[in-house]
# Entry
Amino acid sequence: MDFVLSYMNSTTIGLLSLTLFCLFLYNNFKLFPCKEAPTAAGAWPVLGHLPLLSASKTPHRMLGALAEKYGPIFTIKLGSKKALVINNWEIAKECFTTNDTVVSSRPKLVAMELMGYNQAIFAFSPYGPYWRELRKITTFEILSPRRVEQMQHVRVSEVQNSIKQLYNVWCSQKSESGFASVELKQWFSHLVFNMVLRMVVGKRYFGGENVDDEKAQRCVKAVEEFLRLLGVFTVGDAIPWLRWFDFGGHEKAMRETSKDLDIVLGEWLEEHREKKGLGEVQDFMDVMISLFDGRTFDGFDADTVIKSTVLAVIAGGSGTNNIILTWTIYSILRNPLLFKKIKAELDIHVGKERCVSEDDISKLTYLQATVKETLRLYPPAPLSAPREFTKSCTLSGYNVKKGTRLITNQWKLHTDINVWEDPLEFKPERFLTTHQNIDFRGHDFELLPFGSGRRMCPGISFGLQMVHLTLATFLHSFEIQYSSSHLIDLTKTSQWIGTSIPLEILIKPHLSFSCYENNKLC
# Structure
């Protein structure tokens, strides 16, 4: 009996000791569940890695080089702020599925305070009821497949009118070689701007009668400046107590751009209120007026909500599509064989006696693959717009603290050698063979030019319809050549990929002259 009691006491003490030891380990693991992602070296005192980003001609490539050294997930310091940079599809998938609600908010940036009506612009507003409501309205009223289909006549008429204008330029300026020089960036800019404006505010600014050219140019310049300033690192975002110095004069430029945009948006708003009830076809601004006039929503008055939302659609629609169009043409010019394949496809499915229709696009598989490859290699935003972790969480085994910013290096993700063969080569064929099932609508994390999760771009269908129709019609209508004997490699110059590029080219009609002269294209 004494032996049994002694054995039981020893066993009890042993179990108790083991339990206490396990609790000690548990509490320690709970306090320190995992380490933080490595921090890149080279940070300056106070400024962090801002000088490196500001000095780099291509920040996405600079961060991509850091990924080679530190791995697919690492931290940089933006002044007093920490930012987590992710660089491969596995981490992106975990981020935008498991942790999506945690990373669906935006940090408050100086640009959005000054140019975005103090974050009223929904694309950069915090995650919450205001963002959900504005995104839902915008998606349903202008970006949904139903609305995109209803606006087909706008896209078709604008593209055909612009092709006719290019033909007239060729007629008046053609040289002995049979070609005429055109600046394609401006042509795409005016075309896309007209398309978006007609759908959003019911007017066009270029190529029409009774158009105030000076006002039109001011409006386009203000939108382009808005987009440029969105990509600027301001010292106030990283080190708030140094904001008043306004290094680089960025805040001054933002205030001036905001004033210019607000004047134009305010004029459109008053015009729409004056015509209200006259029985005209409603555009997006009319819908916004009917929904929000007289209301205050989340602390913002109706005018602010309407103007900021219209600005979001115009800036997003015109800027992104212009970038995709110009970089696609640039890539085709660098690869003459691609142009021959696209022309052959167009001649087979469309021919030379009529213009391209939207019904033809589904048959133009090589053209679509070319656009996909452009989005892979030259995404409109090589570094995604920053998000912010609203809660502490674990990502890829690393602890991430609340308030950390998130940057997805989309260019690095799209050029991962573990996913893409010859990742820096422009090969549309990959999307017809090895990667034919990879899409860019946020579900295949190897290709995320429009983001993923709740914050992904809602205007994918809206934009691609414009891009495919514009490219197909332009390439079907003209032969094109680069304007000089050597095509400059713009990817390695000071020109950042995430912007539209100047592109002067030579054009010559490809179709029979009767197609242009008899106005069949218009």
